[in-house]
Amino acid sequence: MIIIHVLSMIFIVLGLLVLAAAAVGVLRLPDFYTRSHAIGVTDTLGTLMILTGIAGIVGFGTACVKLVFLFLFIYLANPTVTHVLVRAALKSGLKPWTADAKKT
Amino acid sequence: MAANVLTITLRTVVLFMFWIFFSGKIDATHLLMGLVSSLAIAIGSLDSESEPLSPEAAMRLPERILRGIAYSFWLLGRILTAAWHVSKIVLSPEMPIKPKFIKHKTTLKGEYGRVIFANSITLTPGTITADMEDGELLIHQLDDDSSEDIRSGALEKEIHKIFKDG
Amino acid sequence: MISSFLPIAIFGMLAIIPLYLYRIVRGPDVFDRLIGLNGIATKTILFLILIGTYNGQLDMFIDICLGYALLNMVGSLAVGKYLERKRLQE
Question: Predicted ipTM?
């Protein structure tokens, strides 16, 4: 029992670190298109780790199954949103940043 | 018409199961409310464009769902490595990124296969589907390593496995 | 042990959210602001779940999270579609 709790805590701490790394990415990356990649990391890896940690703490039950549904929903919905935003930006003529242009 | 009835029944059953799970109450009022709303949603979400479910397709459904689950575990592994890769890029001081748009022509024919393909690409950190026209995808990549799976066709091969019986 | 760990995790999450706030306030384009909002929405979901675990009412908080995730998705899709159409007309 105690081992599962320690594992859950490790997962949550790792998830927080991943979220922090992605937040730093959102701050540092040069343009909108590259920033959406960083958001993708939080949506996938960060969510996975923190939800796994919470599932370990609460144990098996209704809450655990609901967590799986929440996880599935986030995995289905977030790419759609990212795709729509990127397509809107592309159609409205937002110029992508390239490595050749000057560094900001 | 018969195919429509099959589609409606299947959707109602799935939605009703969700209702029971999330409401958590088994009494006449809640069950009736759930049944009515599931039926209304199943009928309301019918559209004339997509083809109705035939009995043969319904028979193939369980097998496909199992293969889809196997595929999502495979994809999860790819996502983990890709997320690690992107985090490393973002945290390294000199940020070695080479963002650009690439084009990729997919060999997937079916509607569902293409949707799964585009969604998987966006889900994998480092690549985003920006547009798709007649099977040609416009993909934004963070650097060359991120789009390795797409250019080599490894991702498509896995999706072909889900739909291999047509 | 868990009950003393969870507040730390909650404060860690609270420390991450302002980083996205910077992107919303400064973001050179509308889309940067939207991506920041989207990031905060995902963080809020995880934040609510952590609070729910701490309170011991996770069932209720997960329902709220599901509703929040749905609303966030529909809202982002609507704004994205709107911007796409509006910028094309100009």
Answer: 0.83
